[in-house]
Amino acid sequence: MMKKMNIIGCLFYGIFLLSCNSWLDLKPYGEVEADKMFEDEQGFIQTLTGSYVLLTDPTAYGYELTAGFPDEIVHYWKERSEFYHFDYENMDVESRLDATWSQMYKAIANTNLVLDYLEGKTPDDLEYYNLIRGEALGLRAYLHLDLLRLYGPVLKEAGTDVRSIPYHETFSNQIVQMMPAGEVLSRIQRDLDSAYVLLKDDPIKVYGRDETKEEFAEVEAPEVKGLAFSFRGCRMNYYAVCATLARLYLLKDDYTNALKYASEVIDDGKDIFEFVRRGDVSSSEKRDRMFERELIWALYDSKTDEHLSKTVGNADHALDNLFQDYVYQDGRGYGSEEDYRTNYWFANTNATPNYWYLCKYERKFAPGGETDETPWKTVVPLIRLSEMYFIAAEANLATNPAEAYRLLNQVRAARNLPALPTSLEHDGGALRDQLVYECQKEYWGEGKLFYFNKRLFLNIQTREENIPATRAIYELPVPVDEIEFGDNNNKMK
């Protein structure tokens, strides 16, 4: 008898009959016969696409992990919740943390369903077996890595033997025990290593990040190939796997491998990913505040305006203008009022109430104008090119500060900033300080500064004070139920 279960799969509406912006105009399946669902390749691709849809929920990257509580903790926003005071026992705070944990594991479960049904199949059974399996493994690893970086220990202080999170590898309602951080890291690496090999022939290398409609209009089952091949920049692609490996190795203080994978994105992906151009941001009619050319991986979210633009544009997310100036123009960080980010990422309401807000998610115009319906106007950034430069720079600080200097200056040039003083070229310590400043400028509204600060165990820098780093600040509490039922008698250290 066929198994029945709720699958967060997706129905695709004819990618070649609708505008290219409809590539993820999907409907969730209800209760379906799972065995029937996975009878053909399309079922695998649709179900995997459902995992991406789950991640656009506001409890995940649709809001919380992009401009939500990680940014509140590092004080990007004025006080808007008890996260600002690091009160993680507050009922509302606890509820938000638990909701994010739950949604991330829902997406992992959906991804595991795909992997479970791939067992026993080979490339002889499914034309795109390697692509599907590589995506699924890469996505599972990515999500577990973010969960570890959020809820796991400060590795620099606690080490890797401390229990952290469970690593879910099957679609099951069975309890998975909490694992030491080192074991989680090993499983993440194993999945990423496999994805790296499986995705070596990723279509992104040939067709780039965008729509490839022309190539597949005449092929058999274009809805399958189109969904898998089009807009690879909105799926876990080969370079996204490389970038995640770079993040992983940096977390492990393995600078050699962190540099290896960051450099692969920078060098081998140079024809696919590039820094924003002046013309992209200078035109009021076509302004690209997202710097979309730089996106290695982004989620397509048809409700970006609702989830992010309107949310971070309201009074709850008001900015301290003096703090903004402190970040972007302060002399210690060699800032400038000409910085593209301070010029185009922030705006004043010029109304009552009057306040400054982050407007980088306002995408009233796509890069090609109002008639251009590419999905890049409705994306949530997950990995961008600048981060790879920062990883490569950090990996070079101790052994080759001149190279770190060069890499930091490339990002600064892309942001319309002058080069750092030549006196810093061979000063690894001073360059490390500059890296911290550059990351603070770059990560506003993308949830990444929390991870950066936590990994290096840095104080939280504000205009008024530096808040001392503590494990209590950076180690977010795992849901109580997870500890009670997932850790059995082995409580977290």
Structural account:
- This protein is mostly helical.
- The protein has a single domain (4-486), classed as Serine Threonine Protein Phosphatase 5, Tetratricopeptide repeat (Alpha Horseshoe), CATH 1.25.40.
- It is 47% helix and 7% strand.
- The protein contains 23 helices and 10 strands.
- It has helices at 34-37, 41-55, 64-67, 69-73, 91-118, 129-151, 155-158, 181-198, 204-207, 213-216, 222-229, 238-251, 255-268, 278-282, 304-312, 321-329, 340-344, 385-396, 401-414, 428-442, 448-456, 471-474, 480-486; strands spanning 4-6, 10-12, 26-28, 31-33, 295-300, 346-348, 356-358, 379-384, 460-461, 466-467.
- A hairpin with a 7-residue loop joins β6 and β7.
- α2 (41-55) runs parallel beside α6 (129-151), α8 runs antiparallel to α12 and α13 packs across α18 (385-396).
- It is globular, with a radius of gyration of 22 Å.
- 49% of the residues are buried.
Per-chain topology:
Layout: E1 4-6, E2 10-12, E3 26-28, E4 31-33, H1 34-37, H2 41-55, H3 64-67, H4 69-73, H5 91-118, H6 129-151, H7 155-158, H8 181-198, H9 204-207, H10 213-216, H11 222-229, H12 238-251, H13 255-268, H14 278-282, E5 295-300, H15 304-312, H16 321-329, H17 340-344, E6 346-348, E7 356-358, E8 379-384, H18 385-396, H19 401-414, H20 428-442, H21 448-456, E9 460-461, E10 466-467, H22 471-474, H23 480-486
Antiparallel strand pairs: 1-4, 2-3, 5-8, 6-7, 9-10
Helix pairs in contact: 2-5, 2-6, 2-11, 5-6, 6-8, 6-12, 8-12, 12-13, 13-18, 18-19, 18-20, 19-20
